[in-house]
Amino acid sequence: WDILANTDEPFQFIQQSPIKPTVLYGANHDKVWRSADGGHQWHRILSRELLPGTTGKISAMKVSRSNPNLLWIAFSGWPDEGRVYQTDDGGQSWEDISRGLPSGPAYSLEYDQTRQQLFTGTQQGVFVRKHSRQWMTYGSDLPHCRITDLQLDTEQDLIYAGTLGRGVWQAPLMAADSQPVPDFELSSCTS
After folding, report:
1. Residues 6 or more apart whose Cβ sits within 8 Å of residue 177
2. Which residue from 33, 110, 138, 179 puts its CA 20 to 30 A from 42's CA?
3. Contact 83, 73 (CB under 8 A)
4. What gap in Å lies between CA 161 and CA 137, rounded to an integer?
5. Backbone angles phi, psi at 188, to 5 degrees
6. CA 95: distance to chain centroid?
7. Which backbone phi and psi does 15 adopt, to 5 degrees?
8. Of 107, 98, 59, which Cα lies nearest the Cα of 79?
9. Please, which residues have CB within 8 angstroms of residue 72's CB and are 6 or more apart in sequence?
């Protein structure tokens, strides 16, 4: 291992832009940094204090597969707003896109580039935001528990939801113009 940069604060998350590999994002519980040179120099682009009404810690981060300046972050707080934010200019400005989500934390994020759908996992299930519109419930068969991770399998057209203590679930990805009605089914569970 070779150190790229010695930062003053630890990173909890790191994301690399698939379309522009020299662009990296790093985050800890309340700050986000960006590197445009492959990780040698980092610049802070967000502190939680700059987002009024946001509580909790940064719980997830996702960068677009096609735009290195498009990034989402989720917070684990309990407000009605301020849980999912989006930047489309590399962190110069941030938009709260939480409206329409149920009260409670957002724990995970995933983005389907082909269908332009952003998913978030919450305590109340998985929600989807299509083409930058309102959030909608994605399926109804998930147990009422924390959705800790989301992963896409675009070859099989599936989304996987990892839960806290209730197994791994899967559901079909919906067509870009359909309503979010697919139900999840248990994929694996160990006791």
Report:
1. none
2. 110
3. no
4. 14
5. -160, 150
6. 14
7. -135, 140
8. 98
9. 60, 61, 62, 84, 85, 86, 97, 109, 111, 118
Report how many helices (DSSP H) and strands (DSSP E) the chain contains, helices first.
0, 16
Q: pTM of the full predicted structure?
A: 0.88
Q: What is the pLDDT of residues 110-142, one digit of tens each?
A: 999 988 999 999 999 999 998 768 899 998 788
Token duo for residue 122: 């919450």
Tell me the per-residue pLDDT of 3-49, one tens digit each, with 9 for 90 and over.
877 777 888 999 999 999 999 999 998 899 999 999 999 999 998 87
In angstroms, rounded to a whole number, what is the distance separating the alpha carbons of residues 187 and 191?
Answer: 14
Backbone angles phi, psi at 48, to 5 degrees: -55, -30
- CB neighbour class for 155 (10 Å; exposed up to 12, middle 13-18, buried from 19): exposed
Tokens representing residue 186 in the block:
């248990």
Determine the Cα–Cα distance for residues 162 and 165; give it in Å rounded to an integer.
Answer: 9
| DSSP characters over 104-149 | S-EEEEEEETTTTEEEEEETTEEEEEETT--EEE--S-S-SS-EEE
